């Protein structure tokens, strides 16, 4: 596949610099390091899948800016994002492709948008975002999030949605991600990260098994 034009490369670095400045002190798990990992992984998937690299990379960079979970200071309305993209010289069609990806891709809204297929570029970014919630980095992020919220490490006995814990989050979301991958490349990478989470939970159960009930940590 042909490389990206100089102009597009320049636009990508303008977006990256802008997003980096905005999210450098973000504290809800959508920080700049997460964005950089998703950028890298999205590109890797896009290359293997033959997706457009510019749309993929641009969407990866801005994918969390409109997330409701971001604090008001970091979040921005779609209209402001559109203006900014156009300010970087990105044409309307490309801006629309990018915006369509990031509005449709969230895990939470997956029911709402389930009939609207993501573009190949969107599939790459969504897989990359989900992969970053899996594996070693996903484990680390889950415990950081739980720590920030004051949640327990795990609960003994049955799972209760109203009683959150770090381990509970694996069953609510992280262990489901493997089967939600869009692309072949995503599925291959997810396989490895899923296995790692499984063996982590199994070790955790062994180390925490002071009571029968801790068996709940690692279950089918
Ligand atoms: P996204 O918007 O990227 O789909 P979230 O905002 O839900 O993801 O989560 C950001 C990070 O925090 C992810 O790594 C996710 O697994 C973690 N996280 C979200 N909710 C919880 C929770 N209740 N307990 C532990 N970790 C969580
Ligand atoms: Ni994200």
Automatic annotation (TrEMBL):
SMART domains: HDc
Gene3D superfamilies: 1.20.58.1910, HD-domain/PDEase-like
Protein name: HD/PDEase domain-containing protein
Family matches, as PANTHER family: HD_PDEASE DOMAIN-CONTAINING PROTEIN, SUPERFAMILY HYDROLASE, PUTATIVE (AFU_ORTHOLOGUE AFUA_1G03035)-RELATED
Domain HD/PDEase: 27-143
Domain of life: Bacteria
